[in-house]
Amino acid sequence: MRVVRRSCRRPGRLVPATARRLRSRAIRLRPGQVIDWHSTGKREELLIILAGTVHVEQEDPDPDCGRGGRGRALRLTASHCAFIPSRTRHRVLNRSRHPARYLYIAA
After folding, report:
1. Domain range summary for the chain, segments of one domain joined by +
2. Is this structure's pTM higher than 0.85?
3. Residue 57 pairs with which residues in a beta bridge?
4. Measuring CA to CA, how many Å separate 27 from each of 53, 62, 69, 90, 94?
5. What is the CATH number of domain 12-106?
6. Which pLDDT belongs to residue 100?
């Protein structure tokens, strides 16, 4: 495999599809846009905010009903990052009136 150069200023994949254990993407969220509830399965995830403000909501599991509801919420601005443990359902929202950009890295 050779070294690949990509720009984090443009939305899209940052590592080649052939990468075995690493997933990474540059994301641009328009005002009001949501990356809906998801989990990265066995992978841990790191979000790095490049511009704007995003909210990350984590779903708290509820053992009584098998699925949780909205749990912890974080507000992140440029230069902040958040670590999301494996098997944690979460979503990312842009509640501001300005675009936001961030990277996610899952390994």
Report:
1. 12-106
2. no
3. 73, 91
4. 13, 30, 25, 16, 11
5. 2.60.120.10
6. 97
